[in-house]
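Fold these two proteins, one after the other.
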Amino acid sequence: MERLETSEKLAINVDEFAAKLGISRPIAYRLCHKEGFPAVFISERRIVIPIEPLNEWLAKNAGSLGM
């Protein structure tokens, strides 16, 4: 198996996601639970968001995030 070598993070947590988008933590968590959002639920208390799928989701949904 090829070893993954990268200096960039492959995923961010909900706090990092909220900070990058300039939104509140509650809104970030609400988005994570939205159908089709690329959040990965590691456990009940741990959610990560992979960068690549997040960028694709943002490009597709920009301007239509009515909550």
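Now the second one:
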Amino acid sequence: MAVLHEQLSRSVSLASPGSRRRRVALTSLCFLLFTCSVFAQAPGSPVPVATPGPSPNNAAQAPTCTTDSSGEPRSTATIRAIVVDPNGAAVVAATVVLTREGQSTNQQTQTNDDGQFFFIDIAPGSYHLTITAPDFAGQTASATVTSGQNCLLPRITLSVATNVTKVNVELSPIELAQEQLETQEKQRVLGVIPNFYVTYEPNAVPLNTKQKFQLAWKSTIDPVTFAVTGVVAGVEQATDAYSGYGQGAQGYAKRYGASYADLVTGTFIGGAIFPSLLKQDPRYFYKGTGSTRSRFLYALANSVICKGDNGHWQPNYSLILGSLASGGISNLYYPEKDRNGFGLTVENTLVGLAETGAINLLQEFVMRKLTPSALKGPSTP
């Protein structure tokens, strides 16, 4: 409502709401999955099976198992293998866990400097092996051995671990405020009249100095601002207000320039300069919840209080000082007989505060319903 209020009281700007915040970006990498086939031994002999896991080098290889025929027959068996990385280099100190099928107990060992591991004097049966090492993906294998067998598994190749990284990207307060501000700058009553100085965002982030000036600049150069200024100047000319300007095109141009100068000084001094110096927020923070009475009092109170950049409510020194300063500056360009003395400037400032209260009531109860792009904030009764 900036333009209407500034022009009616020489200082109004409409506001637009803020938008959401934060994105989250997710980056994931995939794990390589491999499988190994099961191979059988010669007919009539027990079938040792080894599945060392997802390595291309293992896929076409079967375990080599021999039976010890020298000396007394053994009732136990042996499983051994070598563990390497994708380049064929031995993986030292890899942990190998051997679990017998159907049992919860296990045996554990580590690969030596050559990447080899051994399980000696194990009972015949089916076994599962799990091989792990830092920076490598886990690998599994299986084997079935009988009494007296020495079973050499195919070379087990560990693939390099692929980390799945989840990255949360959060906007900084300045970036979040800028995003909300850009949404506010699209706020228009009935889709036309700029409504930049109100935020419907429940947790609006404070604006920095640059953003406060950006909001003031956007408001003063909006096409609707120029159009409303033209209408005001036309009404003043028709009623011969500020007669010292005269009539005709020259008189209209002077009235237009004075009216626009009032808007610019009021907006920049009260909406950017003092809010930056005093660290106050020039926007109206839509309430939208509570009883009608509480919202009514809230809107009126916001003509004399404002939210500081620290999030606390405080006297609206920016608006009051801005109105006084703008009124004083207007004495430089209005006809001498129409210039305000200090008393009249103070009086006009008080009238301006009352008008601000009225505008706030419209913002709280009416404007949001007429603003198509307003955020879907708290519902109104």
